[in-house]
Write a structure and sequence with these properties.
- The chain is built from 3 helices and no strands.
- It is an all-alpha fold.
- It is elongated, with a radius of gyration of 18 Å.
């Protein structure tokens, strides 16, 4: 049982770091503030980062789900 708990703890640490990294890689949602400073984005630059944001948002959901399942399983052991 101790081996299983150790493996789950290591997996939870890895998933915690993965959630932090994926969230930090996402772009900010303060697009309205860029207009005040004169920072205009073209259509091409928006579409280039749009796909990456969708992938990172999806990855955040799945990694967070894995983290929750690992946390619940560790609390039951």
């Amino acid at each position: 049982m101790d081996v299983l708990k150790t493996i789950l703890t290591i997996l939870e640490v890895i998933s915690s770091i993965a959630v932090i990294v994926v969230i930090m890689l996402q772009s900010g949602k303060e697009a309205g503030l860029g207009a005040l400073s004169g920072n205009n984005e073209t259509y091409l630059s928006k579409s280039k980062f749009g796909n990456l944001d969708k992938i990172l948002a999806s990855a955040t959901k799945w990694i967070a789900l894995v983290w929750v399942v690992l946390t619940l399983s560790l609390s039951l052991i």
